[in-house]
Write a structure and sequence with these properties.
- The protein is α+β, with helices and mostly antiparallel strands.
- It has 2 domains: 101 residues, no CATH class; 139 residues, Immunoglobulin-like (Sandwich), CATH 2.60.40.
- Helices cover 33% and strands 22% of the residues.
- The radius of gyration is 27 Å and the shape is elongated.
- The termini are far apart.
- About 3% of the residues have low confidence.
- The structure holds copper (II) ion.
- The site of copper (II) ion has 7 residues, from loops.
- Its main location: membrane.
- Keywords: Copper, Electron transport, Membrane, Metal-binding, Respiratory chain, Translocase, Transmembrane, Transmembrane helix, Transport.
- Pfam families: COX2 (PF00116), COX2_TM (PF02790).
- Belongs to the cytochrome c oxidase subunit 2 family.
């Protein structure tokens, strides 16, 4: 009976895993491909820890089994008292301590690097989360996002935009769709309209909470490959959380310029309506 229940649970697990991983259908047992320069740095730390702890795990389990067998019950053997070995104890305390300090300095160095000011040529995009989706605001041709404040957020002004700021006149907003050019630094400002959401892109190795009342401004990244990737909310933010996701399309610079055209005022069309005489 127990065996049956175990097999059934495993089969159900496989089924559910397959059903929920619509965006990713292969290599589900391992990490998704990494496509940001910072993600590659994160992976180096991950693999270092993975192989080191993996090797220590295998070695200690092997020794455990070996000594269990070697010193198994034997009527002829007499127990001997051993105080231990101070030299060995110093060695096996010092080595892990040095490794831990090394990991601390390594990851702390990366953390500081990830929080550097974004470069001058970065494209600044604002992502405002809400139950249950992501509003993505682009700066338009002037490269500047118009001012916005959380206090001004309302039903009619979802993002709390300041209508008097000329920088905002050419801004445009997409929903659950973020298109960015490959290789360019992308600076993402993160806000939330209601509860805590998250900006989680496994392929970027990037995860940042989006907190109502705050504009998180330290996240920026550079992608290395084109393709479509999932942006998911990773904070249990309500009943529709399971379905809160967006598509990030990473395209070539030419494709990005082409995509932008759909959202910008056409040159042949008058931008403002002519005033009646
Ligand atoms: Cu959410």
């Amino acid at each position: 009976m127990t065996l049956f229940v175990t097999i059934f649970a495993m089969a159900l697990g496989f089924f559910l895993m397959d059903a929920t991983a619509a965006g990713r259908t292969d290599n589900l047992w391992w990490l998704p491909p990494v496509i940001t320069t910072r993600g590659q740095e994160v992976d180096k730390v991950f693999y270092f820890i993975f192989w080191l702890t993996g090797a220590v795990f295998v070695a200690t389990q092997f020794l455990l089994i070996y000594y269990c067998v070697k010193y198994r019950f034997n009527r002829k053997r007499q127990a001997v008292y051993s105080h231990g070995n101070n030299k060995f104890e110093i060695v096996w305390t010092t080595i892990p301590t040095l490794i831990f300090f090394g990991l601390f300095f390594w990851s702390n160095h990366l953390w500081k690097e990830f929080h550097q000011t974004p470069p001058e040529d970065a494209i600044t995009i604002e992502v405002t989360a809400e139950q249950y989706g992501f509003n993505v605001r682009y700066p338009g041709p002037d490269g500047k996002l118009g001012a916005a404040s959380d206090v001004a957020m309302s039903k009619d002004n979802k993002l709390g935009l300041d209508a008097n700021d000329p920088a905002g006149a050419d801004d445009f907003v997409t929903y659950n769709d973020m298109t960015i050019p490959v290789g360019r630094p992308i600076h993402v400002l993160m806000r939330s309209r209601d509860v805590i959401h998250a900006f989680y892109v496994p392929s970027f190795r990037l995860y940042q909470d989006m907190v109502p009342g705050r504009t998180i401004d330290w996240v920026w990244f550079v992608t290395t490959e084109t393709g479509a990737y999932d942006l998911a909310c990773n904070q249990l933010c309500g009943a529709g959380h399971y379905n809160m996701k967006a598509k990030i399309s990473i395209v070539s610079d030419e494709e990005y310029q082409e995509w932008l055209k759909d959202f910008l005022p056409k040159p042949e069309q008058p931008v403002a309506m002519a005033q009646p005489q």
